[in-house]
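Can't paste images in this forum, so I'm doing it all in text. The chain is below; anyone willing to post the predicted structure tokens underneath?
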Amino acid sequence: MKKQITLLGIIILLSSGCTTKNKVQILPDAQIGQPYSVTIDFTNGLRSQSFNASISPENSGLSVSGVAGPYNNETTISGIPKVKQDISIKIRYFVPEAKGFFVDNRDRENNYLIKVKE
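Text version of the structure:
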């Protein structure tokens, strides 16, 4: 009985550690018709060939630059907002991480939200 409870506890612990939920990061507000720019820093660096960004709505007036910065660890969201609604940005990228003798390669996804005001 004690072994079953211990085994169940280990399974729950491992499964809870494997599930990650991406939180939406709130970026500074934008104003419709006014220039907007914000730089996002990816502390672990990333591979530019794996970088993919999408913006919703597509006609928002904003765009996401490619990977930049001295360590390929930055991107910029900029433009002039054309719509009076929240703008969602989803960025997907790949990060190779070295951990001891092993390399832990990870696909990442970050979600951002910009509130547009008049």
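Confidence is low (pLDDT under 50) at residues 4-20. The CA atoms of residues 67 and 75 lie 5 Å apart.
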